[in-house]
């Protein structure tokens, strides 16, 4: 975090993936330090597309932004919108905006993928040159990346000791929830915030969030709903409250995809419609302040939130993760398959393995997938089919409404045995046994693979030939054996 500065006249909050009013570090501190305040959101569709961010994710993000804009307006904080193609153009346009609006300081919450870090450093340099202060806050994680270290001041590479160290630090700190920003005063001496500004290159800074975006298919048919998901901070808070009433059962029910037993808060965490602190605060309040122990369901959910933290910290400490590289360098030598036809069958849910197909169809239909299923389909692609995990990682980024780069990359590398603290290479999920264990009555499969709905509870997991349903795409046992042999040769 850069040096903090004294009370100022005119501030600008730069929103990115932190689209909420409450417990927003940059927004709160800007409102306490500035006499007058405005906000800006900059869409960079060409860069977003190069990062494989899909239509649903971007629709959800902009829908959350619309709700936020209305809430900010009630606090006399206008929110401006600008579309430019790429991150590389952001420093120049923010400098222009800062000059035209006579901004004294820019406030933003830090983002951690490598390209985002480079962009933010360039913004800081560009604005500092003209005397505009820039303040970045650690907001997306419980602790700033780099704050959890081993005894030899090295980053943790294994989850369990990372979790233990993080809890040791956090247990002595109160998890505080920051209030929404104060209502900014309007007076004769206040600034005139124009409805729009013309910038260099014919670009227009406006207070209107458009319904169209270059490179993206935007769905604005039903305001506040994207793929069946309610958007925005208010929807996030309602979901958190609903989950708080059943979080105690999380440990025992979370692996069963036919049950609604997970929080489904990930799209809101990813867009920033809710904060990690708000989630942890709820969990601790129900567990007598305990990070571990107490109710096993609550403790288990806290652990899952710390996995998200772990992957974000890793991404900062190991920039290669942002460059399409495996964490384990030796796995670069794996002779991955690049069979496009087979990959396409996997992606549309036509592999002939019911639990895999049901999971992929859930993804394509709802833009979300149950976490147990994410591991099953990732293992099937990277181990049984031996297709490069990066193809699957990219497809998930394109399809998921909660596509967080760090968590998605970490999850894929864990399953593919290429990442830190990954599943041992010889651990290959058997999709049939996973199906029988976690969808015992076939209820989830029947929902998404109606071709098999008439089969009994036994056959539905590994069906005989059924008209209209494909034969299995590969020999599952042989694929497992091949993957183990390939990984074993790396040792």
TrEMBL record:
Membrane-crossing segments per the record: none
Pfam families: DNA_photolyase, FAD_binding_7
CC cofactor: (6R)-5,10-methylene-5,6,7,8-tetrahydrofolate; FAD
Gene Ontology molecular function: any one: deoxyribodipyrimidine photo-lyase activity
All residue ranges annotated as the Photolyase/cryptochrome alpha/beta domain in the record: 9-142
InterPro entries registered for this protein in UniProt: Crypto/Photolyase_FAD-like_sf, Crypto/Photolyase_N_sf, Cryptochr/Photolyase_FAD-bd, Cryptochrome/DNA_photolyase_1, DNA_photolyase_1_CS_C, DNA_photolyase_N, Rossmann-like_a/b/a_fold
Protein name listed in UniProt: Deoxyribodipyrimidine photo-lyase
Enzyme class: lyase
Similarity-based family: Belongs to the DNA photolyase family.
EC number(s) stated in the UniProt entry for this protein: 4.1.99.3
Keywords: Chromophore, FAD, Flavoprotein, Lyase
Organism: Microbulbifer epialgicus
Lineage: superkingdom: Bacteria
